[in-house]
User: Fold this.
Amino acid sequence: MTIIARDTPPPESASLITPEEIRRTFHMIEPYVRRTPVVEVDLRDLALPSGKAAPPRLVLKLEQLQRAGSFKVRGAFANLLLRDLPDAGVVAASGGNHGVAVAYAAHELGVPARIYVPTISAPAKIEKIRSLGASLVVGGDRYADALAAAQDWMTRSRALHVHAFDQRETLLGQGSIGLELADQVPDVDTVLVPVGGGGLIGGIAAAFAGSARVIGVEPTDAPTLATARAHGAPTDAPTGSIAADALAPKRIGDLVFPITQSYVSDVVLVDDQAIRTAQHTLWHATRLTVEPAAAVGIAALISGAYPFGPGERIAVVISGANTTPTIPDTTAFTSPA
Assistant:
């Protein structure tokens, strides 16, 4: 397993959460979440050259098989189980997946929930939130608009705000993926993780705490972590991309950023065409249907944004599949004779 060299110890702010705290949280949420599987994928199935000597080895961590359709349910249950809940219940703002997750956790635990999502949220996510019995408000163009509305409701109702990424309990819950992955693939060298607000990569990076290389992957039109790194602090970034409903908050989380500075080796960018190609390739190679945000890690491999090395053991986190199934474009593929 690759150990990341470090000249100085991580700053105190990067130790907001520790592997031990993540493990304790994992034991608490374990009855409510799935231990999602990993699957080995041949690089040739992804139309990638494997090389003749010591080819890289690739596994997918299938969080789209998680309850409520994405990794977000881990952080949702962590919030509802670790924090004191008021009679008004909980409120959350979301591009979609976090809203589904909070609605699901609230439904399972019998807690009132009010969810705010922007108009760009996928119809499948909106319908799922409604089906779980949460009070749903759709409005505004982007996640930031939904967040402002949720915070206003929190002030008026005194409901507990469950933040999608910049919340300690959220990070602790998402970090459980790192613990599972380390157990399932003990020789992992590199983990490719989608980045939006940073709850997923912050939790996973804290769980590994430098014992594996963690690489962030984000859309070129929504570069939250890349922008923060360029400025040395969380900074507003563009909020475009076909993955905008999951990976386009205005900026990386304030709690997340110092964790990434200490434990995330690099961040790479992929454009929308690469994301679409990755979605189609995953379908043809593995019959996995995933949402755009979940395909960015594969897009980084296919596009060359992440140049893998000989013999490298790579894990790609497939984060969710709350999307309306469609027949993939097959024009770029030919059937064997």
